[in-house]
Design a protein that fits this description.
Structural class: alpha+beta
Largest sheet: 7 strands, mixed
Number of helices: 11
Shape: globular
CATH class of the largest domain: Alpha Beta
């Protein structure tokens, strides 16, 4: 199998979930390539080309950090290949992590992926599904109300103030396009810096306001889904509880210092997955992360979900053998059915 991972930039990528998966594919003998989102090349009347770095044979390291530092070594250089030479294009760049001077990078990965998908290469997640779910917090609002907290999306301050009053004067505000817990605020009855926060967020675009869930003080749970089911390996589920290391902080994002713990599969999580999975499968979303607080889904992560890179800390398996198994099966199905199955169907086929 030839697989190419698309990330924001090789130079700036940290050894997280993407690197964990590509390393396992490499260790299992596959041809693994990695490229930044700025390294697509369009030729008129030809296939899209990829300026990428092939992971060389013979790399032996004990730690993920050491492995990735060798891939980041500029002496490895790049090669340019026809996108139709690969079996899978795994799009893992995160648009919300791009800086202001790289706004061009936010949509380009998915845009080129759509073209490559049309040429017959298997793209994960399905490129058209990613386009539809590009603002994942808006995509989230297409899910059943039963499993979500009360919410409002607007740029009008008066709307938000009214929503705050309707929800016992305790809400959470965050930018519609954002990740990692950045610019997320709890607004309580004391209204500290309410107007200042509203000014800051409206400058960034639309605001999503959600009712505050008191249970969030105990942390939230990241649930990793693959093919519409909870990712599972060796009898363990990819469910990670994230607990804030600061008792005064309601956010528990790992990027903000949250502590990962082994999570448990509950009836509430099963119910949330049962209502979410059919839509994910229909849309062709192969690998997705759900953030859950007790019986409510608070976020869905479609474009570059992470979490399994912390499995070693939690004492769980790394789940990568199951992921690579699924990738291998999809390549097999594609060849077996001689391209008669759509990318969307293959993306979530078990």
């Amino acid at each position: 199998m030839k697989i190419c991972f698309v990330i924001n930039s090789i130079k700036t990528e940290i050894p997280g979930t993407t690197v964990v998966i590509l390393r396992k594919a490499y260790e299992r003998g596959h041809d693994v390539y990695v490229m930044g989102v700025g390294n697509f090349i369009f030729y008129r009347d030809k296939n899209i080309h990829l300026r990428c770095r092939k992971i060389p044979k013979g790399i032996k390291t004990e730690s993920l950090k050491e492995f990735w530092s060798q891939i980041q070594d500029e002496t490895l250089g790049y090669e340019t290949i026809d996108s139709n030479e690969i079996d899978i294009l795994f799009v893992r760049n995160n648009p919300t992590e791009e800086t202001f001077d790289r706004q061009w990078a936010e949509h380009s990965g998915i845009a080129f992926a759509r073209m490559i998908q049309r040429s017959g290469v298997l793209v994960l997640n399905d490129a058209f599904a990613m386009s539809h779910a590009f603002i994942d917090k808006l995509y989230f609002e297409e899910l059943p109300s039963e499993i979500k907290p009360n919410s409002l999306i607007t740029r009008d301050k008066n709307d938000i103030i009214h929503f705050w009053k309707e929800n016992n004067k305790e809400i959470v505000l965050k930018p519609l396009e954002g990740s990692g817990g950045q610019n997320v605020y709890k607004i309580g009855k004391e209204q500290n810096n309410f107007n200042q926060i509203l000014d800051t967020l409206t400058e960034k675009g639309y605001i999503i306001a959600q009712e505050f869930l008191p249970e969030v003080s105990k942390g939230d749970v990241r649930v990793m889904l693959m093919n519409g089911k909870i990712l599972e390996e060796d009898g363990q589920h990819a469910i990670i509880r994230r607990i804030s290391s600061d008792k005064t902080e309601f956010r528990s994002n790992l990027s903000l210092g949250g502590i990962p713990k082994k999570g448990k599969l509950t009836k509430e999580i099963e119910h949330i997955v049962s209502l979410t999975a059919p839509k994910l499968i229909r849309d062709g979303l192969f690998f997705v992360g759900l953030d859950v607080v007790k019986d409510k889904l608070i976020e869905i992560n479609v474009l570059s979900p992470g979490g399994i890179d912390h499995s070693e800390i939690t004492g769980m398996t790394d789940f990568t053998n199951t992921i690579v198994d699924a990738l291998e099966r999809k390549v097999h199905y594609k060849k077996y059915y001689q391209n008669k199955l759509s990318n969307r169907a293959l993306a979530t086929m078990e």
